[in-house]
Automatic annotation (TrEMBL):
Residues 8-118 form the Acyl-CoA dehydrogenase/oxidase N-terminal domain. Keywords: FAD, Flavoprotein, Oxidoreductase. This is Acyl-CoA dehydrogenase. It comes from the Bacteria. It comes from Mycolicibacterium moriokaense.
Amino acid sequence: MTSEVSDDDFQQILAQTRHFVRTAVVPREQEILAADRVPDDLREQAKQMGLFGYAIPQAWGGLGLNLAQDVELAMELGYTSLALRSMFGTNNGIAGQVLVGFGTDEQKAQWLEPMASGLVASFALTESGAGSNPSGLRTKAVRDGSDWIVNGQKRFITNAPVADLFIVFARTRPADDDGAGIAVFLVPADAAGVAVGAKDAKMGQEGAWTSDVSFDDVRIPDGALIGGTEDVGYRAAMVSLARGRVHIAALAVGIAQRALDESVAYAATATQGGTPIGNFQLVQAMLADQQTGVLAGRALVRDTARLWVSGEDRRIAPSAAKLYCTEMAGKVADLAVQVHGGSGYMREVPVERIYRDVRLLRLYEGTSEIQRLIIGSNLVRAAQK
Ligand SMILES: Cc1cc2nc3c(=O)[nH]c(=O)nc-3n(C[C@H](O)[C@H](O)[C@H](O)COP(=O)(O)OP(=O)(O)OC[C@H]3O[C@@H](n4cnc5c(N)ncnc54)[C@H](O)[C@@H]3O)c2cc1C
């Protein structure tokens, strides 16, 4: 897990990303919001910069960043509409890491390089009744000669409307003493029997798309079984989600920093009765709480990424970071609206979008309740050993 990218090279990637976010994307946030779409030229620029494969190893055409570098990048990407990051979030995160960590060399060679240059992969785990607890999933894969036949229905799948590839979790047998009975498959979006539903109408993150995906007697070859064994599916999902939680925590810090910057700029200039509102101590208290949350979140994310890279903690710290940072971003965004007064409730003001965008961070890749359960149960289990 050491990085393939030197510090110097990484600093350049980071500076380029920061420049792209702040000069090319921030000025177009309202356009993204109004059109519910990231403009094609920004998508193209992100591809050219390697952002569709920044966490994919260099051997397969990616930039090869490790998680400690990933979180620095995520803090920059979080500074604008979260839809930007979402375009390539599944490639580098939940979907891509299943292939990177668990795919065979053949599977990696076939899919990772195209993904690094812009092919979109989606992670299809969630179903109705199987979200927080994926072991309840009902999508089935049944052997038929040397093929598999997949049937089932997934929901809320990020990037499904534009996906070329689905990483699909399906039950191959009931859970037993040997494991959860969940395998994971590579299913091309154009395979016969794959149907992508209409785009979901969401609360926020305009420009980031999700939809249902159904699999109706989809026939895929044996080589599409990730890792070549039925037994990696559940573990692949858990490891990929744990890693993703550190990234989401970093994203939360990035957007909280933006909410803070917007709040400070507004407080310093907007006046009431001729006095800048930032001169009122109760407004300063709100800024202080925002700043404290951002600083604490950033330190926690960096420490958590370090523990992941060294292998010291890949269970408790990722959940603690996601729990703290996403809740913190929610509070910071709420305070940002408060600092802006009535203006903060208006569509054209960035903090209104941020308030809606951050709400999702406490839900996906494990709700805050699920993070608490992971942290608490692991602490008790360790003590009982
Ligand atoms: C915009 C968006 C994008 C998404 N993208 C993807 C994607 O790309 N791929 C994918 O597979 N999924 C995706 N998801 C699904 C997401 O991960 C789930 O929605 C999430 O994990 C919660 O599952 P659920 O919706 O079934 O809610 P539930 O699990 O039904 O949760 C409802 C409530 O019950 C609580 N709860 C559930 N179980 C417990 C428990 N054991 N103890 C205490 N409380 C509990 C939850 O914390 C929550 O408060 C996405 C969701 C959204 C909204």
